[in-house]
Design a protein that fits this description.
With 231 residues, this protein is of the alpha/beta class. Helix content is 42%, strand content 23%. It has helices at residues 11-22, 34-41, 60-69, 84-92, 105-126, 157-168, 176-184, 192-205; strands at residues 3-7, 27-31, 48-52, 74-79, 97-100, 130-133, 136-139, 144-146, 152-153, 173-175, 214-217, 221-224, 228-230.
Length: 231
């Protein structure tokens, strides 16, 4: 189940889209503008944003540019501005799709599904890459973690799976349920405490003091704090 955030200053449009997409099994969140969007992104791992262009305050183009610069979620832009130049600008700023209002819920659903498929494909490709964070290097293909001195650090399969989930979604709150699914699979009958133990072991192996690398968010989950980049 993907988490979708609808950002639009029109409450009727937010309600219409929320009801339509919610009926197809997506977890829906709504925001009336950029500030409210930022508050939600700080606490929820959003997979896709439906973003209106013409809003008071920070407009959708500025928000899209900011999201792309920070490696944010996939974006579908919705706008009454539908000429070619507007669409090109939206796509160049980082939107994966650009739809002109009014558009039918069925058309939006098709684009949502396409954007999420594309995101999944990118995630699968990313698993074959090497990443750097805080001086450490991780190879997701060979399952190797090297410390800043280049020494391989031994991780269990579960510890590596949890670290991979963190590296693929840095600086976002990941619930214990999400980490359990990443490390054990969606049908796991493990308990939240198992993730707490894995995280504690990871902290020791990463030589992290307290919340230096993996921050605990009370009653919510964990955040992997370092900047992550492809090696």
């Amino acid at each position: 189940m993907a988490d979708i955030l609808i950002v639009d200053d029109d409450p009727q449009i937010r309600t219409l889209l929320a009801n339509s997409l919610g009926n197809h099994g997506y977890a829906i969140h709504t925001a009336s503008g950029g500030r409210e969007m930022d508050r939600i992104l700080a606490h929820v791992a959003i997979d896709l944003i439906l973003l209106d262009v013409m809003m008071p305050g920070e407009d959708g183009l500025s928000i899209c540019r900011r999201l792309a610069a920070n490696g944010g979620p996939a974006v579908i832009m919705l706008s009454a501005l539908g000429d070619e130049q507007d669409r090109i600008l939206g796509l160049e700023l980082g939107a994966g799709h650009y739809l002109r209002k009014p558009c039918s819920p069925r058309e939006i659903l098709a684009h949502v599904r396409a954007a999420l498929r594309q995101r999944q494909m990118q995630a699968e490709t990313g698993r074959q890459k090497r990443f750097l964070f805080a001086g450490w290097r991780i190879d997701l293909a060979s399952h190797e973690l090297l410390d800043p001195a280049g020494v391989i650090v031994d991780l269990t399969d579960g510890e590596f799976a949890v670290l991979r989930a963190f590296v693929e979604r840095p600086r976002r709150v990941l619930t214990r349920e999400a980490l359990l699914e990443a490390s054990r699979g969606p049908d796991s009958d493990s308990f939240d405490r198992a993730i707490d133990v894995q995280v504690s072991r990871l902290r020791r192996k990463l030589k992290a003091q307290n919340d230096e690398i993996i921050r605990t968010i009370r009653n919510e989950g964990y955040v992997f704090t370092p900047q992550v980049r492809a090696a």
